[in-house]
Design a protein that fits this description.
Layout lengths: L6 H29 L4 H21 L27
Length: 87
């Protein structure tokens, strides 16, 4: 990740969002279990769906693009791994 002068803000935001998800997941799962009659399979399927969405997002988001718009060689990079231009 290359965010230039904004690296602290970007890194802190990513950390905050990750911790927010980690702190809200246990009560959300408890609520989901109470509403679904303690069906743990629903929780596991929902977790698997989140992982699949994350993997698909990784395939679509450009990998060589900086936050400020160019890669280190000064090229504009708008491709993704799916399009074969991500690396």
């Amino acid at each position: 990740m290359d965010a230039g002068p904004y690296i602290g803000s970007v890194s802190g935001s990513m950390n905050m969002i990750g911790n927010l998800a980690g702190s809200t997941a246990p009560p959300a799962i408890g609520y989901l279990l109470s509403m679904a009659g303690h069906a743990w399979s629903l929780v596991f399927y929902l977790s698997a769906a989140f992982y699949v969405v994350g993997a698909l997002a990784w395939l679509v988001i450009p990998h060589c693009k900086q936050v400020l718009g160019t890669d280190r060689a000064g090229r504009h990079c708008s491709g993704s791994f799916v399009a074969g231009e991500g690396f």
